[in-house]
Amino acid sequence: MTPIITCYFQVHQPYRLRDLRVHDIGREHLEYFDAQKNRAIFRKVAGKCYLPTNALMLDLLTTYPSFRIAYSLSGVFLDQCEEYGTDVLESFQALARTGSVEFLGETYYHSLSCLKSPEEFVVQVQLHVRRVQSLFGQTPTVFRNTELIYSNGIAQIARLMGFRGILAEGADHILRSRSPNHLFVPPTFTLPKDISSIIRKHRPLSVPSKNIHVLLKNYRLSDDIAFRFSDRSWVGFPLHADTFTDWLLQSGGYCVNLFMDYETFGEHQWRDTGIFEFLGALPALWHKRRIRTMTPSQVIDAWKKERHTEEIFDAHAFISWADMERDLSAWQGNLIQKAALDSLYALEVDVKRSRNPELLEHWRTLQTSDHFYYMSTKYWNDGDVHKYFSPYDSPYEAYRRFSHALCDIRSRIEQRSPPLKQRARV
Amino acid sequence: MLTTDAAQGQKRENSLEGDADHVEGAAHPLHVLMFGWEYPPRGEGGLGVACAGLVKGLRSHGVKVTLVLPGERNDGDDTIRVKSALHPYDDVMHGIHGRHSMADDKHLHDLYGGDLGKTVSVFTDTAVRRTRHLKPDIIHSHDWMTFGAGVMASRITGRPFIAHVHSTEMDRTNGKPHEWIFGHEQWGLNQASHIIAVSRYTKNVLTSSYGIPPKKITVIHNGAPIPPARHLSRKDAKLRHPLVLFLGRLTVQKGPHEFLSAAKRVLEQRPDVQFIVAGDGYMLPELIERSCALGIQDAVFFTGKVDAAEARALYAEADCFVMPSTSEPFGLVALEAIAHGTPVILSKQSGASEVVAHAMTVDYWDSDKMADCILTILREKPLSEQLSSEAQHVLHTLTWERQAQNVITLYKDVIHSFAPIPTPA
Q1: Which of A20, B14, B35, B290 could form a Cys-Cys staple with B149, CB 3.0–4.6 A?
Q2: Pick among B380, B389, B392, B394 to test the A interface (most A CBs inside 10 A)
Q3: Tell me: the pLDDT tens digits for B25-40?
Q4: Phi, psi (deg, nearest 5) at residue B41
């Protein structure tokens, strides 16, 4: 049988931090983020990737009415669209109007909240679902967590939030020689009462889903495009659309899930690598060779209708799509990363109690996973210091800025609610 | 005679070819004639340490090193002593032209007991005379004062000459070089068959300020000091003031002024912090004056010259070490601080920042950011702990044994491609 192709693209931009200084802490209306840099990067990527790729996609979706794709746009990306690029937002809305595009749900702030606070996690998904509804007139029914961070627990939470599908990395150590090209289900178990009541209280979708299916990224074929496309030392170079289609067919199974960052097109792989020609050639080729494309929820419907036997995807520990390790080490691999995340969530109760929307917004924007990624020192001990890619000089610079922002949040909490002792005196 | 020597060199080199990685056990061990410097008390700072480390590393790989040092002691077979008044980078000397006094030459005369040029040339002549019977495969000199000896020995033996640059006149004088020294450095670098720079930073200085083609320069970082067997314990942080340390010669190059400016800014935020300026140098009086002018005299302590044991105690006690050098080819002190588990802040204008991944780095002129890094390290315990433990990896990877192996590889390449220039009889 010819496998179905499911394409999903992640679209995200973090708010990078300003060069904050100790003497800034506690200043009124302190700006944490580097608006100039964030705008410049957004416009650069818009010019190289978002606008040309969206134009190409619109053309493809119009020319091939059965062609389907899915996106997940982080809330902080959508915020940046409003600040720096309504043209980009409009081009995504034009894609939504074709009716051939599915938008997935994720945490609004592209956060690691699933690791630290179930309430914050669910609330952020709720915020995201509402934003997608208002901008694209669609309610997400499939969930993708930040950087495909996944575990059995997250799958259950997603199910109770109302999602019927969830994306995950096709990690070899969990697949154990099974193909990722099938739909899986998580093992069933009951979540602790407090967590299920939190979910009930903030549920993004109207009812919990009875079951949830896991779509696994076929990382070999996805990474052929995302990472290896322009690699001259790669045996598959140069990659042509028909060769790649042969590989998809050889891969077999029920569906091949091609999940990647949207910036693959034009930003990671520059225009002169031929990436746009490659992408542009695929739908025609697939149409000719009778290969169907579906969105994640369509694949789940089709799979359920055909009543396939369900295999269990059992992820006790967290997995993700990052690095070779495919675990959390990109964000929680060293002391400063762990300390930064712990200190951030330690402020949750106070920030929420303050009922100060600006404070809450700042605290949430600091949750974006990229802040912790920039603090990674994973490949640093022996390597060339300058290989590191980040908007900052070093992981320590990332920590310095972040810790100042946290201190500012702390000082604002203290200003608003003086410690008990002082209050008693007043 | 010269042709014979060259032919012998060629033969030796051939015998090494089948044994590219190990000189050990080769029929003719590689023989290096090295004009170097020795460890303090006679030497100054990093140059002597680096020289000693390299020689030890080379010998551990079976390389025969004949070392020529200024001095009078007798150290045995492989070391030749040449009586000389030469001191590398005496701070008194650099104090003078650091201030760019027109009295340069007069002071230099006093210091070197006459004419600097003459002192260097006497050393060169004696060193070359005492070593002319040797038949080395390669000549290796460390910094400008021994370049003359290297060039002459190279001409006499018909063997290639490697100039090893640990520090340039541009670094030492904040870009206002003593012309004669600059000229002599440039001459030596031009004469060299190949150049070793201790950092990419220094390579860049050599290409941009001395006009040396980049392909003639290989960067080989210095080896790291061996960490002490046992860390001295810090006093309980709650019982004392946070301590920030500067350690180095008090010269423009080392950036003590920048350190005081940063101290001033730190104290504006945290008046409990104390600063130690350890080391001696011509700038001491003006630095004391400056700390008074800034009104921070009660929080800044000047120790004067410190010996090795005192330095150890200071490194161990400090919560943070700052190397604010304006132009630092390498910066051994940073690695010494790291060896004692002290978090470091490095000037970006340094070679050390190329090899130490786990440090905070700042431009030396940005004292506001330097202060900010100090305050962050003092405030954030996880940061200070991580810098303290992780930075030490470099001590285990950047060993003199490994760096000497890189030098040997370079020797072989240079010997292989060397064509002696016939000198008139």
Answers
A1: B35
A2: B380
A3: 446 899 999 998 866 5
A4: -75, -20
